[in-house]
């Protein structure tokens, strides 16, 4: 199993479904695709493979940096461009609940 036959996937990591924050979504990730299906160990029943590159996940600040890394090492790659979703988050302060002349309803 050679590294050249293994394709890398370059993508922007999506927002976590478990939290509302968007931390770590600006980075681009280079991850290797698995070479084959996992096999089940007959003794323990665990699944695994001898492919250690499938465990590698590298982070880059930009798409160009990830592509340059793959090209410099001769790694074939596929780029999955995902649109960046900007949230309209208005910063609020606790003191705004007691501001004079506020027009919104009380939050509690």
Automatic annotation (TrEMBL):
Transmembrane segments: none annotated. Pfam families: NDUS4. It is found in: Membrane. Signal peptide: none annotated. Its main location: membrane. InterPro entries: NADH_UbQ_FeS_4_mit-like (IPR006885), NDUFS4-like_sf (IPR038532). GO terms for biological process: electron transport chain. This is ETC complex I subunit conserved region. It comes from Falsiroseomonas stagni DSM 19981.
